[in-house]
Amino acid sequence: MDERREDGRPGDVDWRERRGADPSESREAPGGPPTEERQEPLHPAIEDDAEETRRLAETWAAPTGFVGWFTPVNQRIIGRRFIVTAFVYFVLAGLLGVAMRLQLAVPENDLLAPDIYNQFFTVHGTAMMFLFAIPVLEGFALFVVPMMIGTRDMAFPRLNAFGYYVYLIGSAIFFLMLVVGMAPKAGWFNYVPLAGKLYEPGIGVDIWTTMITFIEVSALTAAVELIVTILKLRAPGMTLNRMPVFVWASLVMAFMIVFAMPAIIVASSLLILDRLVGTGFFVPEMGGDPLLWQHLFWFFGHPEVYIVLVPALGIVSTIVTTFTQRSLFGYTAIVISIVATGFVSFGLWVHHMFATGLPHLGMSFFMAASAMIAIPNGVQVFCWIATMWGSRIRLATPMLYVLGFFWVFVMGGLTGVMVASIPFDLQVHDTYFLVAHFHYVLIGGSVMPVIGALYYWYPQLTGRMMNEVAGKISFALVFVGFNVAFFPMHQLGLDGMPRRVYTYLEESGWGDLNLLATIGAVVLAAGFATTMVNALASLRWGAKARRNPWDAETLEWATESPPPPYNHRHIPIVKSREPVWDWREMKERPVVTGLRSDRREVVVTSILDAEPQAVQVLPAPTIWPFLSAVAASVGFIGILFHPIFFVVSFFLAFFSFVGWFWPRRPWQED
Amino acid sequence: MRQYSGADVSGLTRFSKQKHPLYVGILGLIAIELSVVALLTVSCLYLMLTAPAWPPAGLEPAPLLWPSINLGLLIASMAAMRVAGNRITAGDRRGLIVGLLTAVSLHALVLVFRSLEMAAYDFRWDDHVYGSLMWTISGFHFTHVASAIVGTLVVAILAVKGYFTPERQLGVVVDTLYWNFVSAAWIPFYLALYWGPRLI
């Protein structure tokens, strides 16, 4: 680069140049600086060649048609599929929740039989966590992150496609068990010995263990994708301290997935071995230990709740910046808080096990850690308040959902600090207080920002806007319905109503509050339904989105709505945290040149400073990831019937991977 | 908006090794699998330390000889892969093929020894949790060695077809990374399964 700078050719801008170093210059530009520059521009402008643009679109286009559905690898298509599929499960699992609330509306109700109720509540929890929350956040990350960091696709597009098919197959089989009435009924935490062969002989728990492992494979592929894409494919100049907060949050989420998900995979693999071939990991008579399950499960399970929270916090930061039209207050503090949350979340799992009789020293440690996690989250809340303070907030639907998030999430956080304290935890353990607490944290901390994100990024997803009036009605219903449904549960818990019961006695006196909660649940469901109908109707009747409809600052808005197949016509060069706002001011921008348009090329940059290092040639659409996912699912389902399927699937997967990776002739030259 | 060229990347390499995203991606895969290895080892220690007797009363700890020989073979195979990589960097395709096949043979020998050793155990996986652990962890590692073998055979076939050159050797580099992980993963298992019962 240095040589080129000396001979004065175009392309000699130093992308490391900091924005902070020259704001005065850019402001003085119209008045003072030398006139020669304006007469003869330093950098000749690039005119886009229409033929070149057409070829670029052709190179990056995704196939169409029925067979074409199984082959695309473009990040925006895969991300959108994750989002759509996850919302389907959100609706289905939400309906299960409403059904449970109807059952609990009055004492001694017989709407749902106990067996069905247990299936519903197990599938509701499992689906909301594994089939909705993680995939939808990964979906948004897959969809938005590459555009936000100014590249054209993920680092491993085929792996991306593989992850989606694995998720689709695994989740569909899991959910279909409910239709045939054989769903698992040991809760989403699937505790042994209840989930052992002795107490749960049916196929439900088998399906739970194998399909959860299978779906987590999908989460892990997406996590590695995100890590590599974020670290290696950022636009030149987007140093780590210029990365948008949402990208930071996605990166932290991905690292957490990499280190947390293996625990659930190990736990459920050991459980399926116990159930299928008679090993004794969780069987006390054989020397095993049921508590091992709880340790493994919560070593995954606690980071898990932060896995679904952290990217949602990134969404909140994004929306707050856009709708106040201000730089985020305390960028560094927010990023450090996100990273700290990631680390501390691995030291909390035992607080789910306070009632299991662990050593006192351990309990004290985990109590302190559990209370400590409130600090980084508190820091972020104060940074958002400072950003909004005195600004003119634009109260569009995404921002309303974020404001709702503040109220609900802070409430959930406070009850979280309460249950972090062991004496209090033992009092409310296994009561509805916990149900109230974690719905406040999960719906407030995760679902509300996700709905906000749906309204916010809908123009990039579809090219249209969602209806604002319907959005506001939806928010009002969700906010009121949520609090009416879940606030009374705090009181029910303090009154002693246990979790996981399918009914309760008249004399308990819990009837009125339960009825209130059920009314709230119906209102809440109506609110979410309004958004879902809005999203579907806007596909057809929504107003066409203009470019950058919210006047946001990050790069996903630097292109059209919806973006063309290649995302950015030129890969931009970034000099600040708010590139789009800068360009609006400066009326010009530097871009990368020299990428070929006849094959899928992206720029590889260094991890810290994002200096261009190499060019990566990405693969084209192919059927192999789909075949690999099918081969893997043969194994995961087959082993429930015969161990030979392990070997069969091993070789099937092997052949499909060879087909996937085999270099095509002529071997890529250069 | 006016656009100008800020960086021309036409001269940048399309072949990179350590800087290539795939290299980082394989490190990610290894991080995932290392977590699995760590969790299995910790689970083993947890069950070992809470058990009244380990192995269960009446059993001797499994013999050390064969697992130790396997450890040596696995480490030797890592060296063979290293040599193979160096040969192709020097442009020696024959050396690459010989190195890859040597490494594959060493791993294959490990599979043979392990099969004989496991067949000689006088307990089954469904006898007690000690047996469950021995068989499960062995099976886990066995499967990984087998997949490293078949994967590296494919790399060897490509080498025979002349695909790899001093520039184009990313495939060898990432295969070696994964190979080293699979070989080294035996160390914690070896310590936990064979030395653990002797040391507690």
Task: Write a short abstract of this structure.
The complex is a heterodimer of chains A (670) and B (200). With 670 residues, chain A is an all-alpha fold.
Description:
The complex is a heterodimer of chains A (670) and B (200). Helices cover 62% and strands 3% of the residues of chain A. Chain A is mostly helical and 670 residues long. In chain A, helix 7 packs across helix 11. Chain A is globular. The radius of gyration of chain B is 21 Å and the shape is elongated. The interface between A and B is large, with 79 and 56 residues. Strand 1 of chain A pairs parallel with strand 1 of chain B.
Note the run of SSEs of chain A as H and E. Answer: HHHHHHHHHHHHHHHHHHHHEEEHH
Overall mean pLDDT of chain B stands at 93
Query: Most extensive chain contact?
Result: A-B, 79 and 56 residues
| Pattern of helices and strands of chain B | EHHHHHH
Count all strands of chain A and give the number.
3
Number of β-strand runs of chain B: 1
Identify low-pLDDT runs of chain A.
1-37
User: What is the 3D form of chain A?
Assistant: globular
Q: Helicity of chain A, in percent? A: 55-70%
Structural class call of chain B reads: mainly alpha
Backbone structural class of chain A: mainly alpha
What general outline of chain B do the C-alpha atoms trace? elongated
Number of helices of chain A: 22
Q: What percentage of amino acids of chain A are in beta strands?
A: under 5%
Largest sheet of chain B: none
Write down the Rg of chain A. 26 Å
How far apart the termini of chain B lie comes to 72 Å
Order of strands across the main sheet of chain A: 2-3
How far from one another are the termini of chain A? 20 Å
Mean pLDDT of chain A: 90
Structure annotation, total helices of chain B: 6
